[in-house]
Amino acid sequence: MSLFITDECINCDVCEPECPNDAIYQGIEIYEINPKLCTECVGHFDQPQCVEVCPVACIPKDPDNIETREQLLQKYKELVSN
User: Fold this and answer.
1) Is the pLDDT score of 79 beyond 80?
2) By the 8 A CB rule, do 51 and 59 touch?
3) For 51, phi and psi rounded to 5 degrees?
4) What confidence score (pLDDT) does residue 1 get?
5) Is residue 19 predicted with pLDDT exceeding 80?
6) Which residues contact 75 (CB under 8 A, 6 or more apart)?
7) What is the mean pLDDT of residues 53-72?
8) pLDDT band for position 68 (cuts 50, 70, 90)
9) What is the set of domains in the chain, with CATH numbers?
10) Are 50 and 19 in contact (CB under 8 A)?
11) pLDDT band with cut points at 50, 70 and 90 for residue 82
12) Is 41 left (phi over 0), alpha (psi -120 to 50) or beta?
């Protein structure tokens, strides 16, 4: 699964620079995550870095974008090869 940012986001700006895939961006009202770029940090780190730094715990797994660890690793490989 990729991750997503809920309405509890306070726009604190700490998650965006932590994303190794540049999947996080400022949306209209809150930060958002591009599911095509989110690998939950698989291939980079053991834990999703945005989740680690979020002060309000508003970044859960996205039930609309279910992916296995193997799929996330494949996405990571494709992203770093480009």
Assistant:
1) yes
2) yes
3) -65, -40
4) 73
5) yes
6) 39, 42, 67
7) 95
8) very high
9) 16-81 (3.30.70.20)
10) yes
11) confident
12) left
d(CA 6, CA 58): 5
Question: Pick from 8, 7, 62: which is nearest to 36 by CA?
Answer: 62
CB-based burial label for 9 (10 Å; 0-12, 13-18, 19+): middle
Q: Which residues contact 51 (CB under 8 A, 6 or more apart)?
A: 3, 57, 59
Dihedral sign for Cα atoms in the order 61, 39, 14, 4 = negative
Contact 27/58 with Cβ under 8 angstroms?
no
DSSP string, 44-80: T-SS-HHHHH-TT----B-TTS---HHHHHHHHHHHH
